[in-house]
Amino acid sequence: MLFRPCIDLHDGKVKQIVGSTLTDNVAIALVTNFETDRPSSYYAALYRDDGLRGGHVIMLGPGNEAAAREALAAYPGGLQVGGGIMAESAASFIDAGASHVIVTSYVFSEGIIQWERLGLLEKTVGRGRLVLDLSCRKSENNYIVACDRWQTPTSVTLTKKIMEDLAAHCDEFLVHAVEVEGKRQGVDEEFVRLLAAWSPITVTYAGGVRSLPDLEVVRRAGRGKVDVTVGSALDIFGGTLSYREVVEWGKINQ
After folding, report:
1. Sheet with strand 130-133: strands edge to edge
2. Is 35 exposed, middle or buried (0-12, 13-18, 19+ CB in 10 A)?
């Protein structure tokens, strides 16, 4: 199990946002937990110096590509990048230093899995450099894959078979529990258990971590098979959870 760091970008700045409020609906106010003028490269260099690999840079909307590339340049090969990436742009991010590209909406277009697009991505960058974002909204007893900055539920219900079928075409999964993401109210333990049981490849869980005991919940529920990322709760992003303590916890539990 690994601790995976993150750099979330919005309007060209490093921010931490409550994911469920990132919507085109003007009636819903965007909730920002943290914003800084420090460049993305500052955080990339921090993760590089601490030997943290497999973190992700997420571009939340337009206007973030320059900041994403700056982070990749500061830590070549150490970070993944996602947000609006398509087959046409994927290789350029690998060339810019990304270890992997993370893709959601391009593959889950029009509410279904676009297998032809997935095949094109696999051909373009290779299975070993592709991460599929299977971030989900909970619906009754199921988890539904959401795309378009988690605004749009697809017709894809996450199941063991779906994860096995998709795993044949990518290297890892990144999964946000959208209902709890950014809220610092605890993790979705049931979801973590399902990910551990269903995913045949590396999967990283994001959403709701606020403390070291929450990290232990992920470790136990995920049986050591599910990696974890932490954002808003960390003191480097305005929270109260010590980044240094999380780094040390990660080293002990990897």
Report:
1. 3-4, 226-229, 202-206, 172-176, 130-133, 100-103, 79-82, 55-59, 6-10, 13-17, 32-36
2. middle
User: CB-based contacts of 242: which residues, under 8 Å, 6+ apart?
Assistant: 234, 235
What does the CA dihedral 34, 214, 221, 141 come to, rounded to 10 degrees? -60
Could you tell me which residues come within 8 angstroms of residue 197 by beta carbon, excluding any fewer than 6 positions away? 160
Over residues 117-124, the mean pLDDT reads: 97
Would you state the structure tokens that stand for residue 193, as one six-digit string? 């258990």
**What pLDDT is recorded for position 183?**
58
User: Where is average pLDDT lowest: 50-54, 74-78, 157-161, 229-233?
Assistant: 229-233
* Residue entry with tokens 């049986």: 223
CA-closest candidate to residue 199, choices 156, 230, 219, 170: 170
* Nearest C-alpha neighbor of 227 from the set 188, 253, 200: 253
Q: Which residue has the higher pLDDT, 140 or 238?
A: 238
* In contact, 143 and 191? CB cutoff 8 Å: yes
Model-level pTM greater than 0.85?
Answer: yes
Q: Are 93 and 99 in contact (CB under 8 A)?
A: no
Q: In DSSP terms, which residues pair with 145 in a beta bridge? A: 136
pLDDT in tens, 41-75: 999 999 999 999 999 999 988 999 999 999 999 99
229, 5 contact by CB (below 8 A): yes
